[in-house]
Amino acid sequence: MRTVLPFNDGWLYCPEDVPDDAGRENFEPVTLPHTNKIFPHHNFDNREYEFVSTYRKYFKLPEPLNGRHLYIDFEGAMIAATVTINGHTFEEHRGGFVPFSYDITAYMREDGENLLTVHLDSSERKDIPPYGYVVDYLTFGGLYREVQLRYVEPVHTTDIFIATKNVLAESPIVVFDVQFANDDSQTRTCSFSSRFVDTDTSLVDYHSDWTDLTIPPKSRVNHRIEMSVSDPILWTLDAPVLYQWEVELRHDASDSQSIIESQCGVFGIREAEFRKDGFYLNGEKTPLIGLNRHQTYPYIGAAAPARLQRRDADIIKYELGCNIVRTSHYPQSRHFLDRCDEIGLLVFEEIPGWQHIGDAAWQALAARDLVAMIKRDRNRPSIVLWGVRINESLDDDGFYEEMNTLAHELDPTRQTGGVRYFQESRMLEDVFTFNDFSNTIVEPIHTPHLVTEFNGHMFPTKSWDQEERLIEHALRHAHIQDKQLGMDNVVGAIGWCAFDYNTHKEFGSGDRICYHGVSDIFRIPKYAAYFYASQTPPEQRVVLQAATVWSMGDRSGGGNDPLVIFSNCDEIEVTIGETLLGRFQPNRETYPHLPHPPFQIRGLGMRWGEDFGDLHIVGYLNGEAVAQQSIDAEGLPHALTLEADDNELFADGADMTRLVFKIVDKYGNRLPYTNQVVTFEIDGPADLIGENPFALMGGQAALYLKARHEAGIVTIRATTPRLPAATVSLTMRL
Fold it and tell me: Is pTM, for the whole model, over 0.90?
């Protein structure tokens, strides 16, 4: 039968291009995902990861071949991989964002040790997308995604596409398009069947009749099965119900012992359509509010395990309150997309690239990336739009007509977009996806019109910037989202961007970070993040956050007037010290289209030289107090806090979690101008990833904790002068 086995443990790594006949002494053991170099979170040169490294794995076959073919599947290797197995070298794979595979059957030693070698060129090569000119993000290096071994019978499935039709009709249709391969030298006959069941209750179980197949030698055949569904449970943003699908292949349909292979996965039943007047999910108009996401992290580049990838989706949906994310500017981890499917976060996924279009060979790689992206992800209900154009590139009608046609052939169920920065561009795709840096929203020329970037480099903001800049940053996002929600010919707006990110010297700040995020590089919120969070329906989560450090001299001219508060409460009460200032309503006059406008309170009456008390805010819904926040007027360090995102990790050598540390006032609010050095000690079977000691900027930062291959308790202790130590403990489980 088909068997897929993880192949991430037991690798050896050398940060040099080592000959295949060299010994093991220059290698260190690593577990995938792996970055070719650990960095500080800023102030480093991209040329530090641009080298050729060598990965090796010595292994015996975990299962005998028994006539099966054996493939090795790489989910991502940055950026050009030359793979050798037992002395046989395959053609170089160029490109770091899509999966690739090799059939290694003919080169295996079934009874002995095998040697797999990957020579990985992580240079920013101009012949490989996204490079050719400058690029506003880093690609880092390494075998930064997982690897699997895949055993298949000579007759096997090579592609399964699950599509839905007539979703809003009385009897929707689920379509299975399956491709079968026969790698044998003689004609083979077999039978297959498809079924699906909803994963929440398993009350609905649909299955097709067995279908006989005759497959000529060394060939592929396609077959389609359609099944009607009664009363399906639709995939929605609030209830993203997934169905489990299975395709089973047998030698004999009547013999359950003759299984050749069984494949399974998930899909959702839903209809997604961009129309001229909006985006419609299952026939219901759905305003789109979103952010862009880069896949990179501090210290580890893009080599983040499943837990961190999945958490980014949770942050974007639950902490930032978005309903759509754009995977700028490349296909991203399957773990991130898995979580988007599970929680109901819409995705606009696009091909690798940034402004530059290369020669014919370069364009062929871009087309290959498009095919790989769509085939990998077209069963996902979360994905509602394919990006078929190089981000912000000039028009190239021949190239982009080909890409648009290719996307529609591969997936006729989804619309296409191509991100531009100029409206005069010829619209070849289904949705005009537009980067709008006008600090407003220009009147659309083409529709449907989706704003795919705004703000970003127009107003970069650091967590420790002057308060009025942080507030202005947040209100710019509020202004654009309010405006787009009031325009019937704009279907949504996706802000730039969710998180700060490392970049090249041609972009970003002096420390080579683009401070464009509504959260910092550690995924810790700035004031703009609180604006997005405040658009969450209060029945899901109550948000109440003042955009101030509550000091007299942080703003130009002094004072805290106006006091800006982001909340989804319908009323707030403000008290300064013992003085009740009053109850206030959100500013619906300035932001008439937002679900929950900011509160902007003037007339605080605070003056230079006069004492003032703590700030106390209470949020009300329907007259009932539901949230409160207090900020200490003293503004002095009260505590060092240390929190882990998770209580336990898998002891698999790859699992990681974030450790957030802050210096806070007596109410737990971050103090952005505390720049102490924090030192960490660790006890137990795990490693700290990041700078230690850490010189704080902005009063907050994060490290990562990485599991080893041992079970046990891990305790981390953080210390800084003049404050009590902070500790946190986690469990490592096998």
Answer: yes
pLDDT tens track for 689-719:
999 999 998 999 999 999 999 999 999 999 9
Q: Are residues 522 and 400 in the same domain?
A: yes
Strands (E) across 555-664 are located at 563-567, 571-576, 579-584, 599-601, 615-621, 624-631, 639-644, 648-650, 656-664
Domain boundary among 149, 182, 201: 149
H or E, element range at 335: helix 334-343
Q: Can you give the CATH number for the domain in which 576 is found?
A: 2.60.40.10
- Whether residues 298 and 337 fall in one domain: yes
Q: Count other C-beta atoms under 10 Å from residue 177's C-beta.
A: 15
Residues in Cβ contact with 479 at an 8 Å cutoff, skipping those fewer than 6 apart: 440, 591
d(CA 59, CA 116): 8
> What pLDDT, in 10s, does the model give residues 502-557?
999 999 999 999 999 999 999 999 999 999 999 999 999 999 999 999 998 889 88
Decide: 129 and 365 in contact? Cβ < 8 Å: yes
Burial of 447 (0-12, 13-18, 19+ CB in 10 A): middle
Catalytic residue among 124, 153, 319, 392: 392
CA distances from 153 to 66, 148, 250 (A): 9, 16, 11
Q: Is 392 a catalytic residue?
A: yes
Q: Are residues 500 and 365 both part of a single domain?
A: yes
pLDDT at 605 over 90: no
The CATH number covering residue 348 comes to 3.20.20.80
DSSP 209-230: PPEEEEE-TTEEEEEEEEEE-S
pLDDT over 80 (residue 486): yes
| Among 75, 342, 453, 467, the one annotated catalytic | 453
- Concerning whether 643 is annotated as a catalytic residue, the answer is no
387 and 350, same structural domain? yes
Q: How far is CA 56 from CA 11, 64, 120, 129, 405, in A?
A: 6, 22, 11, 26, 40
CA–CA gap between residue 155 and residue 215 (Å, rounded): 8
Residue 470: φ, ψ to 5° = -65, -40
